[in-house]
Each structure stands twice: as C-alpha cells, then as structure tokens.
Amino acid sequence: MSSSANIKAIEAGQIWSFPGGIHPPERKELSNQAPIAEMPIADNYIVPIKQHSGAAGEISVAVGDRVLRGQPLTKSGVSMGLPVHAPTSGTVTAIGPGRIAHPSGMADIVIRIAADGHDEAIAHTGLTDYEQVARADLLERIRAAGIAGLGGAGFPTAQKLALQRPIDYLIINGVECEPYISADDRLMREHAKTILDGAKILLHLADAKKGLVAVEDNKPEAIAALKEALADYPQFSLRVVPTKYPSGGEKQLIQLLTGRQVPSRGLPIDIGLLMQNVGTAYAVSRAIRDGEPLTQRVVTVTGEAVRRPGNYWVRIGTPVAEVLREAGFERQSEEQRIIMGGPMMGFTLPDTDVPVVKITNCLLLPSVSELAPAQQEMPCIRCGACADVCPAQLLPQQLQWLAKAKDYDGLEQQNLFDCIECGACAYVCPSEIPLVHYYRKAKAEVRNMAREKAKAEIARERFEARQERLEREKEERLERHRKAAEARKKAQAEQVNSGGDNPQDAVQAAIARAKARKAAQQKAAAEQATNEATNEGKNEANDGENNA
Amino acid sequence: MTFKLAASPHSHQRRTTQQVMRWVYMALIPGLLALIYFFGWGVIWQLGLAIITAWVAEAACMSLRGRPIGFAWRDHTALVTAILLAISIPGLAPWWLIVIGTAFAVIVVKHVYGGVGQNIFNPAMAGYVLLLISFPVQMTSWPLPQQISQFELSFLDSASVIFTGFTPAGYNLEQLRMGADGLTMATPLDSLRTALNHQLTVGEALQQPIFGDLAGLGWQWVNLAFLLGGLVLLKQRIISWHIPGGMLLGLMVPATLAWMFAPDQSVSPVMHLLSGATMLGAFFIATDPVTAATSNRGRLYFGLLIGFIVFAIRTWGGYPDAVAFAVLLANMTVPVIDKYTQPVAYGHGGRS
After folding, report:
1. Is there a binding annotation on residue A380?
2. Summary count for chain B: helices (H), strands (E)
3. CB within 10 Å: which end of chain B, N or C, has fewer?
4. How far is it, in rounded angstroms, from Cα B61 to Cα A486?
5. Preferred mutation among B1, B2, B3 to probe A, highest tally of A CBs within 10 A
6. Is the Cβ of A370 closer than 8 Å to some Cβ of chain B?
7. Per residue, what are the HEC states of A513-542?
8. Which region ranges are annotated with the description Disordered (chain A) (predicted)?
9. Residue B64 belongs to what domain range?
10. Which domains does chain A have, with CATH numbers?
11. Same structural domain for residues B209 and B261?
C-alpha cells in the first residue's frame, strides 16, 4: 500500500487486524466498578533510585535530611537518566540496597523515607502557555518530573520525544488489553480531559499534526468519556479496537491502527509513529500545567484474595504490604501468588516488602481456583496451538525445541528476538510448557554470548594492538641504532678526511698490542713445558716464574 | 512471609493434551459405529487387543527409559495410536496381527525416537505399513459388509475367528468372505482396480454387489461417519482445516481431472472421497500434529501432498488404498516443508 493510500485509509478510520491473539477471561469488572480511591499516607516509603529503563541518577539527599513531597532524591544528569522524587514529606532514614520489584527479585539502591504525616509538598509552578516555551525547556520539565512510560516499558518520555523525526501520528494507548487491569480504564473515565491535554502537549513536542486515541471496545464508559472530551481536541480521533489480547502491545496496536509494522529491531518512529500511554499523557499534563513531579500513579489491586478490589492512587515507593492491607488481602493458601502486573505478563513477588514503582500498574492476588498454578510440564505434541495465537507470527514450538537444544543460530533464524513475551502461546499450550520462560532464558543466554563475544573481540583487538606496538617499537629501535651507526661511521670518515687521527688506527694498535702480549705468553708457556719435561726439580722456580 | 514464585503467564486455558486426545477418540465413535454396523463386532475385539498392547508396551518402554509410567498413560497418545490402528485393519484379522502392529508402533516408531512428540513417522500408519507388507493376505482380508454376507457373526463368533481362525460352526475366514456366488470378494477399491486391469469400464465394474450408490457398500457410510467426527473436531478447534482440506483437495482435483478426461477408466472423485481410509486419514491420521508440518501454510501443503500421493498410488501404484503410504511419505517431507513455509514474522517486511 502506498503511503498516501495508507494515510487515507487511516483517516477513514480503518481498523486493521493482527494475526493470532487470545481471549482470556477479562475479569475487569472485579476492579473497575468504583472510582479511583486515595491510598492513605503510609508510615514508611521505599524509593528505588532506578525505576525506568536507563541509568540511575546521582543521589542528592543524605540520611537524616528532611524531604518534601515532590522533592527530587536523585539528579537526572546522565543521558537516559531520570530523577525519582520523595512521595511525601518526611525524613530520609536509610540509603542502601533493598529488594526491588523485578522478576528476578534482585536488590538495588533504595532510599527509605519515614513519613511525618504532614504530606507537605515542595513548591511548584506550572506553565499556562506552554507553546511559548522552548521545546528543550519543556522536555527538561518532563524529564525533571521523572516521567517514564507508565504503560509498562518505563522508557524516559522526554528521551522518546527528543528524537526529532517526521511523525504521521501520535498514538495514545488506552487499550489496556491485559486481563484484570483497569487502571487506565478508570483514569480515562475520570480524567479524560487531562489525558487529552497531556496528549496535546505530547503532540506539540513531537511536532506532529494528528493523533489517534485507541481504546478496546470492552470499555464503553471510557469511550463515552473520551468522546465527550474529544470535542475540544480536533487534532485527535478516537479508534475503538476489538477486544483481543495483546492488542495493546505497541507493535500490535500500530498494526491495528495503521496497518504498518515496526521493522524488526526498529522503533515506531522509523515508520513515522510515536506511542504514549494514557497514564503518561496524564502525568505530562500535570508536569507541564502544574509543575507537579511524578509521585503517584493509579494501581489496580484485584483478584479474589482481596476484599476491596479496585483502583487506588498509590504513592510511588509505597510498600506492597501497605497497599495490600488497604485492599484487604487475605492469604488463601500455600500456593498464594502475588503478581505485579497482569496475569499474562506480570511477575510474582517473593514477599510484600518491595515498593510500588512507576511502572506498577497492577497487583493481582488470585485465589487458587481463579488462576490455578501451573501443572507439570508435559512433552510438546507439536499441536501448533501456539503458532495459531502468536501475534508476531513466530513458531513458538520450534523456538521451544531450539531453546532447549541451545541452538542459537536456529533461534536467530526463527527470529527469537521478535518475541514480545505476551504469553499467548503458553496460555494455550495443552502441555503447559512455560514457553515464555524458555524464550526469556534463551534471550538472556544469547545476550550474554554477544556480550562475551564483544569482550573477547575487544581483548583480541587490544592484544593485537599491543603486539603491533611492540613490533613497531622494535623496528623503530633498530632503525634508530642503524641510523646512529651510520652517523658514527660518517663522522669518522669525515675526521679522517679532514686529516685528524683515525680512531680506527688506535683500535688497530690496541689489537696489535694485545696480540703481541698473547704471543709472548704462549712462548713463555711453551718454554716452561720443555723445562718441566727436562727437569722436574725446577718446579718451584717455574711456579714462581708462572706467578710472575 | 514468602509467596510462591512462577513464570508468566499465570493464566492458562485449561485444555490439556489428555483432553485433546479425548476429543479425538470421542469423534471416532460415529465411524466406529458404522464399522460395527457394516463389518461386524470384530473391530471391538481388535480395539481391546490394541489398547492393552499399547498400554503394556508404553509401560514397558517408560520403565526401561526410567520415566514415570503414569505420566505417559495420562496423555492418552498411545491410546489414540492403538485405536487408529485397530480400526484400520480388517475386523476379523488374527489376534497376533494387531498385537505386532501396535507393539511396533509404540515401541519402535514412538519410543525409540524419544517418546511422545519426538517421532518422525505417524505410529499408527507405520504399524499399518509394517503389517501390510509383512502379512499382505491377512491385511487385505476385509469381511464382506454384513448386508451382502451369507453369514451373521455374533460378538463371540467374531472373537472365535480372531483367536482361533474359525467360527464355532467351523467356518474359516476365507469361507466367511465368500459372496453368494461362491467367490471371495475383495474391498471395493481392490475390485475396481482388478476390473480396470481386466479392461472393464468403471460402469461395468460397479455392477458388482459390493458397491452402493456413492461408493463401496458400507464403506461410503463408514467414510461419511468419519467425516462427521472430523467436522466435530474442526468445530471444537482440535484440528485446523488445513490438513484435511489439503488432503481432500489434493485427492479430488487430480481425480476430477482424470474422471473428466477418461470417465470409463477412472474412479470418480466421489468414489475416491468415500472409499478406503480417505476420511479417516484426512481428519484423524494425517492431522497427527507430531508428525505433520508446523505452520498452517506448511500443513496445507502437507495435506495436498498426501492427497496427491493417495491418488497416484490408487491410480498407478501397486496397492488399492494408499493412505498409510501417503502419510509416511509426507512425514518424510516435513522438515523440508517446514523450512520453506516459515511464516514471515512481524516486522520482517510482510504485509498485514
């Protein structure tokens, strides 16, 4: 399809489709009934210094410092860096390693804050007319507010906007296809105007003319709210997409709305598109209009193991235990899981001491009957159900065999790195093979190998460079000696020519003297031998003579 | 307080391999009933023998391989192999035939290659071919449809034939297979082929009493019953249309062409579709996922290839029916088909 025909089709509101996908039970009604509630101020907060994809900033507070809500705790200095902010007013009690929300349960540097209960905020001012402000200043404000993609990836928003490339459409993603989660749904229902305001700011920053707001058709209330608000935002048009998992995945949504595909290992901007989540748009509006940094987000707390499921404004850094207490969590069994994120792509937490971070959109506490724990893995029967549901058009069963066989070339050939880890394959697998787990492991191994290879390559280059240098130095040294010798010879020749003593003569004379001395010694020795043969008795005298 | 850790996704669609296999053998019931109705109770005995052999063989292999036995039994794949083989062979065949075939299928074709999911060849069909080339007489001695047979065999009479070779009244299998004219009768496809070889036209050959309105008497209904079961599997999304569709198309297109150009010397497309193991093969045998191609496009080619080979062997080959050979030959081509039918992954230049 030519580019202009494609644009025309997009303008006409065409919705394309993507292959595969699944329809797991949505279970959104569990949490989307009530408005977003405020979570009370907790006693203690744990703020990991790195909550986005990129490097952590330098810590700018010390233990004992009093901090205010919204006060930056780290600097944004480095490239891809993003500051974190104090979630409430209080005192920094500790800075050090602590467990963070990560699939591996790993530790990172966290800043612990004891709240003082006043919830005093740092002074901040917004911009009334942001269009008069330089683009770089606006981006710096977004960066200073600590905004990262709130949809899950956590990519610094300012960084994404900094790439100045022509953009056909800015896409605002309100699809929220993952079962159970309704944080974006509630946000759209209650703050459609703020979201669109943020979207308009993003549109301005991306230097794009048009935007699309995408919502899945299982959110009629959010659609109605957006429709009403969109009357004031003619730059944006609403796109309602059919409910199917994973239609909210960046690549899938792009395919749905534009019929385009992000090139493998490329970015949406390569095909003239930019995507931001509705939560991010909301945060951008708050940061620009009110100067408010990102200190809270909407978190869906749901599952049959909580008595008060719903959506909450949760301060970033709130320990999960606090959130669960507020939502009325009761452990159901030994098999109880705490899932951060949704049932398809979320990860389990080992305990409740980890904090809510910028990318935490959901805490799911399922009962055992609700989401039965995985059964024993059975052998693959190559039924192909996985390939039928793969939105990336991969062959998951082939990938699985290759991953188990550690056939990295085969994995490359089967495009392992185009897997978006949506989990649709593992969801339908009749043998309950944890396919995504195998892919993640294989990806990590491939990355490690690439790293090792790069390291080995660097080491080899350095070794070769050293060898070359030594060789070169040796050559240079020899050359220097040769030149010096030549110069000496030349100097001598000049000396002789100019009538002076030839140093060579002196050497010759010395050699002649040495030869004469040697000859005399030999002669004496020969005489002595003759004397010994004729007269043994003269030994002593001879000894004396020898000694002399 | 620690909590259980698990890899995502945490949600699973509850359809296990066992359930898939259960659907497969439930869908075989209409065909099985038709077989009993037309060809007698023998098939039930064959089923019993096959299932027991398969379970024993599976248990023996698993214990030799040091694996839990219950684990293999639970997936029901050996059960399906046994059932497919049992309904593929003549109902009154001697007991050792099915025992040898099933044991070979489970032990050599499945477990020697590494058990479920690892075998290259369809176990039931490899077992069938082993029997066909080793014991051609027993394997082609199909009983006459009961409607034209002079004998009526009870459930126990069938057992007697299978285990001793004789009915309680003393008739042997050869005698049981004689028609009213005193001639032993072959299967419809076999008779037709013999007739064509004797320069008879198809029209003349079809005058024989073993033919019905559409195809072979009895066989046409057996095939339609398997088709019904196959449609249930399609509806339940246990199988996709690609393999059965491909196979039926691969058989029908050349058959139709041949029939259009030489109607007197060619078997009609309907006859092809409703004879021998066509429907059983298309919906239940070729669709064995383990030995089929992996992508949907690959599966379509795989099916087309089977259909065409069936046509070729039935028309020019040495055997009247050819589903087993066609499936095994197509099994061999699977790696090549897979290599050339890998779908274009997202972001690799394909169009949506």
Report:
1. yes
2. 18, 0
3. N
4. 87
5. B3
6. no
7. HHHHHHHHHHHHHHHHHHHHHHCHHHHHHH
8. 468-548
9. 17-184
10. 3-117+128-363 (3.40.50.11540), 378-495 (no CATH)
11. yes
59-98 in A: which are within 8 Å (CB) of B? none
Q: Which chain A residues contact residue B8 at CB under 8 A?
A: 341, 343-347, 421, 423, 426, 436
Q: What are phi and psi for residue A534, nearest 5 degrees?
A: -85, -35
Q: How many folded domains does chain B comprise?
A: 2
Q: Residue A346: its chain B contacts at CB < 8 A?
A: 8, 10
A-chain CB neighbours of B294 within 8 Å are 382, 384, 387, 395, 397-398
A6 touches chain B (CB under 8 A): no
Instruction: Let me know whether B158 and B60 are in one domain.
Output: yes
Q: What is the DSSP letter of A29?
A: G
Answer yes or no: do B22 and B169 share one domain.
Answer: yes
Q: For residue B345, is it within any domain?
A: no
Given CB atoms, is B261 within the 8 Å cutoff of chain A?
no
Which residue type, as a one-letter code, is found at position B186?
Answer: A
Contacts of B9 in chain A (CB under 8 A): 343-345, 423, 426-427, 436
Q: Which value, in Å, is the radius of gyration of the alpha carbons in chain A?
A: 38
Closest residue to B3, CB basis, from A336, A345, A421: A336
Cβ within 8 Å, pair A430-B17: yes
Tell me: is residue A390 an annotated ligand-binding position: yes
DSSP, res A434? -
Residue-wise pLDDT tens for chain A (548 aa)?
Answer: 568 899 999 999 999 999 999 999 999 999 999 999 999 999 999 999 999 888 888 899 999 999 999 999 998 776 678 999 999 999 999 999 998 888 877 889 999 999 999 999 999 888 888 989 999 999 999 999 999 999 877 899 998 888 888 999 999 999 999 999 999 999 999 999 999 999 999 999 999 999 999 999 999 999 999 999 999 999 999 999 999 999 999 999 999 999 999 999 899 999 999 999 999 999 999 999 999 999 999 999 999 999 999 999 999 999 999 999 999 998 888 889 999 999 999 999 988 999 999 999 999 999 988 888 887 888 888 888 899 999 999 999 999 999 999 999 999 999 999 999 999 999 999 888 999 999 999 999 999 988 999 999 999 999 999 999 999 999 999 999 999 999 988 888 887 777 666 667 777 888 888 888 888 888 887 777 777 666 554 444 444 444 44
- Give residue A421's region: left, alpha or beta (phi > 0; psi -120 to 50): left
The pTM (predicted TM-score) of the whole model is: 0.83
